[in-house]
Predict the structure.
Amino acid sequence: MQNLITKAPSEFAMAFKGSTTKEFKCVSSDTEEDLLRWFQALRVVKFGDKIPENRATVLLEVTQEMERMKTKSDGPPLIRSPKPVLRKPLQLPTPPSKPM
């Protein structure tokens, strides 16, 4: 079977299996950003009802983990910000002047 992506009118394309085993659907876009939007739209179509539930679950887990880290930490903070390093500006040597 020939590669359907190589016949796309632009370099940003995807193909996926349709409802039957011999059927393929192709999507092509002018920019990579538009192709990513197509991916997102297809995910919403496929998983639309689960997306808010999954988001809420992840937010709850992250919040619980942050609270656990706060209460567990007796010593210094787990994440330390680096101390700023002050450096002198780079002094470039002056080029020798050309004799006239």
In short: The chain has a mean pLDDT of 77.
